[in-house]
Structure formats: structure tokens, C-alpha cells
Amino acid sequence: MNVPQDLKYTKDHEWIKVEDDTVTVGITDFAQGELGDIVYVEVDSLDEALEREEVFGTVEAVKTVSDLFLPVSGEIIEFNESLEDEPEKVNNDPYGEGWMVKIKLSDAGELDDLLSPEEYKEIIGG
């Protein structure tokens, strides 16, 4: 199971990369494996300010549709538009080209509530 050491994680199987006051968010390798072949990613909250734990979009796989929860409060400033034509990037490269959104962080203190790679591995049994 691929759990990069330079990222933070949530119990909802999302990863977070922190760069100054911008965070990049996607779903983990574990999550994409559980979902199966991803056929559609929808983010309809671009340019909206949302609170942590609010739904910012959905990911649709062959068997199911799952909500995407915002791991930290902030404004969604960018959506990975390449996923509109190639949603399979989430399966093939979840930590790289399969990223979903970028958020302008509004409360850096919330980063302390995210899981370390070790804590996330415990949740998924790694």
C-alpha cells in the first residue's frame, strides 16, 4: 500500500499536500483501490469557501458514488480539469496527476488535526 511520507491524511482516505497557505487534495491509493475503476470526478464547489468536513464533490466508480469531504476549511481555488476527460488518473496516479482540488487554507491550525502517514497506515491496516 502506497502511503507517501510527505503528506497528511484523513480518516476519509484523502491526502493533503501543504505548500505555504495552499493545500492540494486527492484520494489515497487505498481509497481508489476500494472504489475500483473511477469513471467520473465532479467538483461543483470551485471558488467557494467551505468549512472542514463539508462535501466539495463526488467521485463515481463503476460500482458506487462517494462524497468527497474537505479536509480543512478554505476556498477551493483550482480543480484538476484533466480529470473531466481522464478520471482514470485517480486510479493510475492518485498522489500525482490524480490530484483533485487546491484549497486556499483559512485556518492553518486545522492541519494539526490531520493524520500522519503512520496514523493513516494504522487505520487501513498497513
Any overview of this molecule?
The chain is of the alpha+beta class and 126 residues long. It has a single domain, classed as OB fold (Dihydrolipoamide Acetyltransferase, E2P) (Beta Barrel). Strands 1-2-3-9-8-5 form a 6-stranded antiparallel sheet. A 3-stranded antiparallel sheet has the order 4-6-7, with no helix packed on it. It is globular, with a radius of gyration of 13 Å.
Order of helices and strands: EEEHEEEEEHHEH
Determine the mean pLDDT: 96
Structural class: alpha+beta
Q: What is the approximate shape?
A: globular
Instruction: Tell me the Rg in angstroms.
Output: 13 Å
**Fraction in helix:** 10-25%
What's the number of extended β-strand segments?
9
Tell me about the biggest sheet?
A: 6 strands, antiparallel
**Tally of helical runs:** 4
